[in-house]
Amino acid sequence: MFNALVVTRDEESRKTSASVEQISLDKLPEGEVTVAVEYSTMNYKDGLCIGPGGGLVRKYPHVPGIDFAGTVETSLDDRYKPGDKVVLTGWRVGEAHWGGYSQKANVKADWLVPLPEGLDTRQAMAVGTAGFTAMLAVMALEDHGLQPGHGPVLVTGAAGGVGSVATAILANLGYEVAGVTGRPETAEYLTSLGATQIVARDELNETVKRPLEAENWAGCVDAVGGAMLARVLGQMKYGASVAAVGLAGGAGLPATVIPFLLRGVNLLGIDSVMQPYQNRLRAWQRIASDLPMDKLETMIQPAKLSDLPQLGADILKGQIKGRVVVDVNA
After folding, report:
1. Are the C-beta atoms of 279 and 255 separated by less than 8 Å?
2. What percent of the chain has pLDDT over 70?
3. CA angle 99-316-152, nearest 5°?
4. Residue 48 φ/ψ, nearest 5 degrees
5. Can you give the pLDDT at residue 13?
6. SS3 320
7. Which of 142, 196, 251, 287 is most enclosed, with most CB atoms within 10 A?
């Protein structure tokens, strides 16, 4: 028997509830590799899966947790053997498949990545899906020509999970980082991660009639979407790119095509769920080399399985700063 956070739903009221339960190995879904999970984390999707579901969870009872790191216990695949340290993000684990809020997980071998040298399992989950996504965004901006010295790089939702890691990575690589936040009390935190400019969220939430404004930003990692993304597109430098990673501010995009046509601005979509294996390896290797571990430590908020129902509600309200790291064995 082992512990897991199990979400159930009352079929009459459609209301969900979550609690830590003891379950047996035979209850796990089929998989080629059994992993003894050590750490997981809290992402926006996890908040949805613990609470209202958000259309992500189709079958109950369910174990959320869209990422985890741990040690292989058994494997039917030659790529992994007992004792190997592994990381999993994406592939709809924690949504359509039971996830990391459990002391054991059964998954497909193709979904795993070897833990990169230089990271332990706790650090890997301090990075987690949010940090992995942030690294993919930075890589995409670089692949489209961004280099240090081109000008300030904007990070929206900077105090959140993706934004925190993106800020730390960009600053470490020598970029001038401007962090957008709606929480003034996080300014010192963002400065400690390397942000050299703090932009109040309200400044970019105002809608303007002009499709183009002053060319302020050489690049942008956008975790907000909505009206803010539309506004940012009109402030990008000629030929600059925006990496879109989230929709905390809404899925709509009240923008015009003018920034694309007159300034050659690029809007890059970043998907972390179905990334090919080689891209995953490249991103995790870059994380191990380009993310300062001392900065990562300042982002961590420790948690245990029993904390997750409340933390899930908090993240949906935008009340989480940095990275929640869940010790599933605590």
Report:
1. no
2. 99
3. 100
4. -65, -45
5. 86
6. coil
7. 287
The tokens for 61 are: 């009872």
Domains of the chain by range and CATH?
Answer: 2-115+298-327 (3.90.180.10), 129-269 (3.40.50.720)
Total residues belonging to the chain: 330
Q: How far apart are the first and last CA of the chain?
A: 16
How large is the angle between the packed helices 121-143 and 161-172, nearest 10 degrees? 70
Q: Which of 174, 184, 126, 135 is nearest to 153 (CA)?
A: 174
Q: Which helix (H) or strand (E) holds 28?
A: none
**Per-residue pLDDT for 34 more than 80?**
yes
* Residue among 158, 161, 205 nearest 184 (CA): 158
The encoded tokens of residue 70 equal: 């741990």
Cα 299 to Cα 321: distance, rounded to the nearest angstrom = 7
Q: How much is the average pLDDT of 94-110?
A: 97
CA-wise closest residue to 126 among 330, 327, 329: 327
pLDDT tens-digit series, residues 142-179: 999 999 999 999 999 999 999 999 999 999 999 999 99
CA atoms within 13 A on the CB side of 219: 25
* β pairing state of 236-244 and 217-222: parallel
Integer Rg of the chain from CA: 20
pLDDT tens digits along 121-137: 999 999 999 999 999 99
pLDDT at 53: 64
pTM above 0.85, yes or no: yes
Cα–Cα separations (whole angstroms), residue 285 to 127, 133, 136, 235, 281: 12, 13, 11, 32, 6
Q: In this structure, are residues 128 and 160 in contact, taking their beta carbons and an 8 Å threshold?
A: no
| Residue 67: CA count within 13 A, CB half-sphere | 29
